[in-house]
Design goal:
The chain is built from two helices and no strands. The protein is an all-alpha fold. The longest helix has 16 residues. The radius of gyration is 13 Å and the shape is elongated. The two termini are 25 Å apart.
Length: 70
Amino acid sequence: APRGSEEYLKRVKELTQAILSLPHITGYCYTQLTDVEQEKNGLYFYDRKPKFSPEKYYELFSRKRDEYDL
């Protein structure tokens, strides 16, 4: 599990970069929207409150392949 919000954001960014680095992948879908019971990797907490501002999620997920240093 990530040790804090900065590590969490770093992991999401790196995961997004890894997906976009694959030449045959043109998009992706993040399916773990909320934390559930023992899994804590959702974008929102168990009670559906956002872990970060919507602007931060937009910044992470709206980037295109050529905007990353791959």
